[in-house]
Design goal:
heterotrimer; A alpha/beta; B mainly alpha; C mainly alpha; A: alpha/beta; Rossmann fold; 2 domains; 6-stranded mixed beta sheet; 17 helices; 25% strand; B: mainly alpha; ABC transporter involved in vitamin B12 uptake, BtuC
Amino acid sequence: MSPTPTAAPAIELIGIDKKFGAVHANKNINLTVAKGSIHGIIGENGAGKSTLMSILYGFYHADAGSIRINGQATVIDDSQAAITAGIGMVHQHFMLVENFSVLENVILGVEGGALLGRGVSEARSALKRLETDYGLEVDPDAIIEELPVGLQQRVEILKALYRGAEILILDEPTGVLTPAEADHLFKILGVLRDQGKTIVLITHKLREIMAITDTVSVMRRGEMVATRRTTETTVEELAELMVGRRVLLRVEKGPAAPSDIVLSVRNLTVKDGRGVTMVDNVSFDVRAGEVVGIAGVAGNGQSELLEAITGIRKPASGEILIHGKPVTGFDSARLRALGLGHIPEDRHHMGLVLGFEESENSVLGYHRDSRYGRGPLLDLDACREDAKAKIEKYDIRPPNCRLKTANFSGGNQQKIVVAREIERDPALLVVGQPTRGVDIGAIEFIHRRLIAMRDAGKAVLLVSVELDEIRSLSDRILVMFAGRVVGEKTPDTGEQTLGLMMAGIAA
Amino acid sequence: MENLDLISILGSTIRLSIPLIFTALAGLFTERAGVFDIGLEGKMLFSAFAAAVAAFMTGSPWLGLLAGITVSVLISLIHGFASITNRGNQIVSGVAINFLASGLTAVLGQAWFSQGGRTPPLAASARFTEIVFPYAAELRDTGFLGRFYANIISGHNILTYLAFLAVPASWWVLYRTRFGLRLRAVGENPGAVDTAGISVTFLRYRATICAGILCGCAGTYLSIAQSAGFVKDMSAGKGYIALAALIFAKWRPVPVMLACLLFGFLDAFANFMQGKSVPGIGEVPVQIFQALPYVLTCVLLAGFIGVARPPKAGGVPYVKER
Amino acid sequence: MSTASVPLPNWITYGLMPFLNLVVAFLISGVVVWFIGESPLDAVTLLLQGALGNGEGIGFTLYYATNFIFTGLSVAVAYHAGLFNIGSEGQAYVGGLGAALASLALDHYVPWYVTMPFAVAGAAIFGAAWALIPAWLQAKRGSHIVITTIMFNFIGAAMMVYLLVHVLIVPGKMAPETRVFLEGGQLPKLDWLIAMFGGKLGPAPFNVSFLIALFMCVVVWVLIWRTKLGYEIRTLGASPTAAIYAGIPYVKTVIITMLISGGLAGMMALNPVLGASARLQVEFVGGAGFVGIAVSLMGRSHPLGIVLAAILFGVLYQGGDALSFDMPKITRDMIVVIQGLVILFAGALEYLFRPAIVRVWQRFGKA
């Protein structure tokens, strides 16, 4: 069913602008969504999709711009105003009280009076009605934390509908769902649309966009770059719009000379904190002298794979071997001792202690090493000398090892991490998003360093959501989708082919 | 054991439990709303002082109660200002309140009355005195049930009955009203409350005010019902025992009452056992009973008796903007 | 919109803001003094004279400060690991047992300098032992260390009273305390130190524990900033996720940190037990463990700051004593009020002036 081009659009965002400190999350965004349609907003992580929708829901305040709902100029300065305007939101991280029943969660904020009795029984019958109208079955007395995530999400949808939402925003709704659950969700969304609701679906998964949306907008780096009718676009076009035509940072490199196997991953399965399987029976090898890139859209299990290999998360099953020695379940200190270097995906939470001096961060993880002090003592002079050498070699600016790490720019912070991990000359280097939030100059520098590692006969495992980066650095590319490795390709494989694999469409 | 006078032990169990029940219920409101409340002790002490002073000045226990509650609510608001508005460390704020209470009551007491921090003894009319139920005197000597009626059911002051009413009332507020639903929600997931269009800040302030009222009753009970005036540091750690009881009861109203009665009983039994010896064992040190509430709570916290799951958002200031 | 993320220079964060907080705490204390009908200025004068006016006053001031240095260090070490040890009070109390047992065992046979290392070790070991269970509960079971250390304060108090009343008491005596230690079980006074500055110590119990406290400041400084363990402690406190990344073992680090913290608290007992009263008495800690929280907060968990804050509180304690002598309306409890205000403003309300300072800074500071 195509959107009915009647009346005023359900949502109009005009000139929305939002900054978080130095981060320009939304740049002058304009968006129109027709009533009774499913509108997809697609973009990579950090493209500004969630921020935009949080502004629409009154959770953040836009620095500039205005909002019109059903043609009416509407000020949405808090969630209450959004609810009043008929907007409901299903957050990526559910806003549910886990030890409450479904019913209690549904009525929270719309209890229908100071006492619960009457409101609760009304809500009970309203839930029955919603259940039959939209096929949203869920036991109203079940406790949330005992429900599977798919049902928890259904409760979020019920919450919005119970509040009379005519516009429903779903932020990455399938991230936590199994494929079957996701299909069921899409069915429900279709029913809702057919009953006249307007739905905004935020996602980075192309398959979902193609499957259920009527129109789609693409965001990239805080900007709205295009809006298309879904029937008139293709996965290829969307993928290109999402990623953008970037300056190709080709790295000069010769052919790889892979030798012995350094890292072996055998039937690895990893679950996240909620017990959802994120890595599903994955096996691969990385040899000395090659870069193996793992491509995939964020959230398909790459992070958990990295965490399992580097000793941060215990795998649920399977085996990890380094130089043929089983190391499954080792902590990161033991793995480092075996020659594993790790450039983590998130330098702010893992790779660095932002409140520390630069020199202190330049030894993080290696601080027990005898070169940084005899016995129990930490030799700060040795740390600082070491840091100074790295600052020199990696051109870290400002060249001041006593400066607090938080005061370095993103690119220089990343160089601190890269310098630390590479200078230890590890046999195996595991790298996650090495150039996220890093300026062009630093990107080139880091890329050259990684290739130099390969040429020095080290095994490099690279995870990145930047397809360009994967293609220009890797000697072999593994594509991950929904926790599985869905194929192996050579780096000269076309962007389109890889994009389709990443979207779970082709193998 | 000779002279094991069950009725009199139960009677003093009730008397010793009342301040614990009020205070633990106070903690129930703040902690279920996600605000740690180490300052229960201080609020109790402040209100005990205020109640005694007001009752002495006006001669009315009811004005004493009003003063006790008012001061305790004001202190709660300071705690709220530090921990909700300023997003300060809630434990530090509680510790500060306990210091202030201990110091300020003594300083003001000495400055105003010059009796070593005490307030002058109150006349019976300025106190909450025992209420004797009909026929209590007649039934006192008619066997166990009669004594039970005369000493356990009858013969307490109004605040005692109020404390036992406060338990079902708290339950009702927490589980049967809109306010209670939101309060329990904000202690678990303030984001859920915020996205439902409810102010987290205002809700938490109201929770601390509830705690202030209940602590006010506890302090008032200490100084103008149980005793006839304020004595320096008269709360004597009861706020902490109440905190232990609250944890022991896993943050639920009726178990809170039972835990307070248990801890009150231990206290009463310790008093009873003082100087008595048990055949075969000898004298049981009173300190064992004093330590038992805390030992039991630690054993519970260690997960050996079920799991005490504190409110998830407890102690964490709510920050929306990233 | 939000001022929380605006960076400020160190001299504002570590200098101006704590100073302003302290000023407010003292101003309000002055209001309390004025409210009960005394002159705040006179009170300050009397207080300073009492605390610093002569050798004896200084002796008492430094005696109190010694207690607070130990407990302040105890709180600070735990705080560096992100742990809130509110149990220094109980750890010091139990530490007194270890110190006293060493003195009771040795004072007949050896001079004080032989007893001292055993007393130090006894105090530290017993204090550490009292922190072990809360530490283990936090590390292994996730029980909140604030709650468990509070519980252990009370359990420790009950245990110590029991021991003093039933076990350690001198037969035939009423007072629940041990016998008086002979000279071999005491720590000598530092009258020579005061004499060096031309003062007379008089009856003030200022003793060798002060030097031990200063030595421990150096030890803690080295531990936190010059050892690998200290590096791990600080990493754990600053970023638990980075600690996992760096392979820093959580359970082991938490337990070791708390043992050190408890040991430092326990050593506080040397001062009153071996240095002043020469016997173990009921409730000898007298709230010094809680003062340690204020001292550590004010001293920003740095040994140098802790020494300064401890001396400030020493001045308040001793000066408060003198003050209550001359101004009967102001009792010693006034010190407790000031402490409460300092903890409130320097601790819980530490960001009170930040938004205002940020606005001023953005207007004028950067120009």
